[in-house]
Design brief:
With 347 residues, this protein is an alpha/beta fold. Helix content is 36%, strand content 14%. Strands 1, 2, 3, 4, 5, 6, 7, 8, 9, 10 and 11 form an eleven-stranded mixed beta sheet that branches. Helix 2 (73-82) links the parallel strand 2 and strand 3. Helix 1 runs parallel beside helix 2. The chain is globular.
């Protein structure tokens, strides 16, 4: 059975701005402190939110850059919540994120917030984030969010540089009381192109470690750009979340200037939110339609028996080969159909 989300995205990641006061080594957006004058206007954003609400109910994740750099940020949150759309906020851990801001967001009834934690010590985390003191600020803010009864997700970068610290970071995340811990497996885009991904074998080791620690309590552990986690979970008869959701299938990204893309890590533009209805782009554009057709995938992903549940990272395939329909190079699995074909050739 196809696990396709043809009618509407489940999650809309909206890069309100690329302005940010951090200088993270893996930043997809190459963010800097300056605001881009080409950003969508408040009126544009309200119109697009209205269009989403008229025909769907996706989770709206307000991100950046740092969304707090926009002067109309709270107006955007209020409009999103007022439309009945689940509103999640992904700010940067900077002095802009004060206790008053957290209390305001709690009163506005945002669905959740997320912060990033890429090391278990100040030296390691601040080394990734590019600003001294960010680790201590992140932990203080994280506890304030939990205290305000806002569900908190902690995002952690998985690279060759961070893999050996994951167990220590997990303990910090658990002690904070975060609801979720999301492991983002690096895609080599933006400044992240200078970092090293884990190997496919290391990826499997990490994902199996996650499955060993996924016991139903807090934090719930999820992955980003590692959908083959679902294949491992299915083979181990574990609970599987997000079946089928991936770049372009259940996921949409809107850039700060209105580009409509399958994800923030797959920079192929299918339309423009400034002039087009994003739901129509999602439903009708050839790019989004083809990304939902796993039978169009090439190589191992195209013949894999787990392709509907997983489908591989289309962003990683594109970053590695220039083809968003190629195999995900981080996956080690040899599909049964491919193994049988090779056996027939040997016979």
């Amino acid at each position: 059975m196809a696990l396709r989300f043809d009618d509407a995205p489940q999650r809309v990641y909206w890069e309100l701005t690329r302005a940010c006061d951090l200088s993270c080594s893996h930043c997809r957006a190459n963010a800097n402190p300056s605001v881009d004058p080409r950003e969508l206007s408040t009126a544009d954003i309200f119109r697009v939110l209205d269009e989403f609400a008229a025909g769907s109910r996706p989770h709206i994740i307000l991100t950046g850059g740092d969304p707090l750099k926009r002067r109309d940020f709270f107006d955007i949150v209020a409009h999103t919540v007022g439309l009945g759309l689940p509103c999640l906020v992904a700010p940067s851990a900077t002095p802009l994120l004060t206790d008053d801001v957290i209390q305001t967001l709690a009163a506005m009834r945002v669905t959740a917030m997320s912060l990033s934690l890429d090391g278990s010590t100040p030296a390691r985390h601040d080394g990734v984030r590019g600003v001294a003191g960010t680790f201590d600020r992140t932990l203080r803010i994280a506890r304030a969010i939990v205290h305000a009864n806002i569900p908190l997700q902690i995002n952690t970068l998985v690279t060759a540089q961070t893999r050996d610290e994951l167990a220590d970071i997990y303990r910090v995340v658990r002690d904070i009381g975060a609801e979720r811990w999301s492991l983002f497996f690096l895609i080599g885009t933006g400044r992240g192109a200078r970092l090293s991904e884990v190997s496919p074998a290391e990826s499997d080791d990490i994902l199996n470690w996650v499955l060993d620690h996924e016991g139903g309590g807090r934090p719930i552990i999820t992955t980003t750009e590692a959908p083959h986690y679902r294949r491992l979970a299915l083979t181990r008869h574990k609970k599987v979340r997000g079946m089928g959701i991936r770049d372009g299938n259940g996921v949409m990204f809107i850039s700060h200037i209105g580009e409509i893309q399958p994800s923030g890590f797959l920079p192929l533009t299918a339309g423009y939110a400034r002039t087009e209805n994003p739901l129509q782009v999602y439903r009708d554009s050839p790019l989004f339609q083809t990304l939902r057709q796993t039978e169009r995938f090439a190589g191992r992903c195209g013949c894999c028996e787990f392709r509907e549940a997983c489908g591989g990272s289309r962003a990683r395939a594109y970053a590695a080969t220039g083809d968003p329909f190629a195999s995900d190079p981080l996956c080690t699995y040899q599909p049964a159909a491919l193994t049988d074909q090779r056996a027939m050739l040997r016979d």
